[in-house]
Amino acid sequence: MTGQPTHRDGDPSLARDLSQFVFDTSSEAVARRSEDLALAIPDAALEGVRRQLSALRSHAEAAGLMSPDGDES
Amino acid sequence: MTSVWPSIRELARRVRGGECSAIDTVSQSLQRIQQYNDEIGAFTRVLNDRALRQARAIDGLIAEGKDPGTLAGVPFAVKDLIDVEGLTTTAGAKQRIGLPPAKNDAGLIERLTDAGAILVGTLNMDEFAYGFSTVNTHFGTTKNPHDLERLAGGSSGGSAAAVAAEMVPFALGSDTNGSVRVPASLCGVLGVRPTHGALPMDGIFPFIDELDTVGGFARSADDARLVHEVMQGDRFDAPDGQNLNVGVLGGFFRQGIDPAVLEAVDRVAEELDARPVELSLATQARSAAFLLTSAQGGRRHLDALRGDPSSFDDGTRDRLLAGAVLPEGTETAAMAAAQPFADQLAALFDEVDVVLTPATPVRAPKISEQTIMIDGEAVNARAHLGMMTQPFGLSGVPALSVPVAQPDGALPISVQIVAPKGQEGALFAVAERLEQAGVVIAPPARGLVPHEMRESA
Q: Kind and range of the H or E element at B344?
């Protein structure tokens, strides 16, 4: 063993029910999630993370996980 | 301009037949690396002792009348996320330097070396394979051998550049969202993304389980096929490239693409008598892959993000942090969101054997350029280089990036060929047909100046 991460089997064809999923990246949701994960976002990363989350919101919309007006689905 | 290397099949034949020795082939590779690597930045470590030791062993087998294998004496190199016995697998990350070395070669390296191939080094990459540029704060930027001011692409940029500059006849990289096909496209070599799950992944540093694959870079379809067959441990049923039904994708796959790239796609489509086809859900599939990558990447590196976020390149840190704070369930939702595209693609493959798209939306951007134009809009260059490759990842299908013949001195342009799962043979058959027609060719890298000439200038 090299002590490094290993692959697990992925399942790319698995379809699951999306009805319960909420894609919420509001600042409150991000703050809650960070707290749950015991993850502090350093000041130096704040702007970059904000930019990334904005791009991810667009992708969530394009993937059909969020309606175009911003409501999470 | 003559190629440095003959075909892999011919090189191995010469070694097996005693026309040249494995020591000769390895020495030629090591000399080429010494001449050009400080300019290109493809290799992170060169394994002189190991390579020469293995070359002597192969020459010894031949002297005893034994057959060292299909790839006898053929030098190759691997992306630095593939375990090499005795070396720390860095995955392009400063934070991994100093960790214990790998105790064994990855399974794929074992298969290649069992067939007589000789490992000469490890290759540069984006940190943790998260990027399309191979601009790495710690290990440096890999430059495009066709124009040193331009990106080699990523994340397997070192692998593509090493083959484009003919430092090795073939190399291995990994492809999660396009990390073989994108740099292969920008560097003008062939790059294989195998069917997901077709090759063993032991000893490969993971990024995204549902998307990760390992594939080869080479300079011809036959070279790529041979390397892939050795890795898969089986020969492909080779369909007749003349009788395949080919589709060329429209819609998303033509929107905002550089006209010169579209011209190359059309040229390939015409040669293959391809008919226009559509996949309306490509944008959704690309975005789903983007979200899965962010969420799983963040989760995978959570401990390091908690402990010392400054140990990452800034760009990687920001992407991983954003992924980590996405809502719980994003990975599952993203995979489900990609399924309709996979169904659509499977249905399309009932009608055609392979489909064509651009491999990248543009030629290699300058390293200094932050944006490229897509659909009249300036967008982040590095994030969008994979927009043609990303949609196919979660469908698990194989794909091949092939360089389309260009006027002398022009930067490479490549086309992506996509086949149903398990049909890599169709990819190679189409590429061989295009090579025979003179439409696909890996161009020589121009303008490389040997180390000693730069020193004396």
A: helix B330-348
Question: Which residues 380-409 of chain B have a CB within 8 Å of chain A?
Answer: 383, 393-396
DSSP-derived secondary structure letter, A42: P
Sequence letter at residue B71: L
Q: Does B294 touch chain A (CB under 8 A)?
A: yes
Q: How far is the C-alpha of B51 from the C-alpha of A56, rounded, in Å?
A: 45
| Cβ–Cβ contact B302 with A under 8 A | yes
B21 is catalytic: no
The shortest CB-CB distance from A4 to any of B89, B321, B328 is to: B89
* CA separation for the pair B449, B231 (Å, rounded): 34
- Within chain A, residue ranges assigned H as helices are 27-37, 43-62
Give B49's contacts (C-beta < 8 A, 6+ positions apart): none
- The string of DSSP codes covering B155-176 is SSHHHHHHHHTTSSSEEEEEES
Of all residues in chain A, the one with the smallest CA distance to B397 is A12
The string of pLDDT tens digits covering residues A14-71 is 445 566 788 999 999 999 999 999 999 999 999 999 999 999 999 999 999 976 554 4
**Are B327 and A12 a contacting pair at CB < 8 A?**
no
The backbone torsions φ and ψ at residue B118, rounded to the nearest 5 degrees and listed phi first, read -120, 120
pLDDT for B359-368, tens place per residue? 999 999 999 9
Cβ atoms of residues B374 and B256 within 8 Å: yes
CA distance B247 to B358: 13
The pTM score is 0.95
ipTM at complex level: 0.91
